[in-house]
Amino acid sequence: MKKFLHSLSLRQVILGISAIVSFLVFLVLFGIAGVLSRSQLSQQMAARWSPDGDMAQISCFFSQNAEVSHDNIEEFRHSIDGALTEASIEQDSPNANARLWADAFSAGGRISVTSDRTTIQANALGVGGDFFLFHPLRLLDGAYFSESDLNSDYVILDEDGAWQLFGSNDIAGMMVYIGGEPHVVAGVVHRERGRLQEAAGLDTTLVYVSYDTLEKYGTNNGISHYEIVMPNPVKKFAYNYVMEHIGVSEEDREILENTSRYSLKKRMEVVMDFGLRSMNGKAIIYPYWENVARGYEDIIALLTFLSMLFLLYPVLLILVVLVILWRHKTWTAKSVFLFLQDKAERGMDRLRVSGKEKKEAARAKRRRKKEYKDKFDEEEEYDE
Hints:
This protein is of the alpha+beta class and 384 residues long.
């Protein structure tokens, strides 16, 4: 080993060390990109629903011109079970309450919320379906609500709204009034902070209410987002079904599959679309979580691209070394074959010799044992 190291020039040592450092930087950058992609919980619904990889999460974004209504959502929902039955996809869980799919939708707007202390005018999301199943915001107090709850008069406040209305975050179960009607505070959620989050729209108080509440008592900008997690027995099954049956014209919608959003292939596509990605000819305003996801998509794609550049250096260096070794080789394919054959034969010989030695040792042991026994028997006869 020392002889080998002395044979290397300083330049070769530096190249080797730099290649190792470059590979380590690749691992760090690629690892950070992976951690960031897994941190986007709103994009991980399919994995949470089923770890077997047989589900897909699809998101649809609509322009105001689409004029999607609650009735449109219900019509689409009614078609899903029939489509799954036709595709021979059935629920095989022993749990009677198990479902094959889940969905959620939301509409943005403004709403007035009153407590015994004050009244605030706040941005609002009117949500339906299992919205908080798709978007598991961090709860500071209380619990989520869903469309299946018998009481739809629930509200969830972010921490800023809770402090403005009550001066506390510990307010689950307390009452507020929206449009003069009492609503129960189901919970208080943490509002994410950061440059991306604020640019995405989380720069002010946000109140979560049922879609019915927003439609009745607030300013409703219309349903702008629908998402579903459903079986995906073959590639693109769920995506294609939503594309064909969502009932909104192509110019007024954008549909994406969240399941593979941060895959290596998708990251490279984002890099290849650099400069074109920000161009959007559709009148679609993304909700805050999609803006955040797109921001992280850019960051993850950039980290992946940089990591690949750092990987390229050691790979090229190894190829150069292999080419040099090939050009200066003193061996042929035949000589390598004969060398390996000779090594194999020597190994077999060693095994055979080792086997013979073991047998000889065993025979010698038995012989010594017999001699010792015969001697012991003779001594006993002599004593008698």
